[in-house]
Amino acid sequence: MRKSPLLLVAALFASNLACEDPREGQAEKRKECNRFILAINDNATAMRKHTGKSEVADPSEHDAAAASRLELAKLYDRVSSTVGAFELNDPQLVIYAGEYKKVARDAAAQARRAGTALKKDDVEKANAAQKEFNAAVKKENQLLLAITGYCRVL
Description:
Elements: H1 5-18, H2 22-49, H3 62-85, H4 91-119, H5 123-152
Helix pairs in contact: 2-3, 3-4, 4-5
């Protein structure tokens, strides 16, 4: 199947209208990437303080672990809101932002569930929520690798 030269010219023209100077478009994407990554990194430092043992069996640790999980939920809520509020122009970053927001909300919900269960000394529910939280963090890590890989090539 032969492509019409007119369609190719129209596509090139449209892409040039969208981005007069290709370097300018790359600079904008780079700014968006940097803003995205910085927002996540700003919260990552605080999040690390609240990630410790995966499971908490010792009843004397329940209150501290519950408070830590609940604070972690707030941090994930915050980063989800921050990323969700971004005005992004790059289509791939828009997709990544939506995916990250969803993963962060899931992590927040599971951390909150674990914290609430620990407050009630329900270790079984807390450990189940912690496993779900760990799965969300694994997805988050994979997504962050994809985002940094995408941003690195800009």
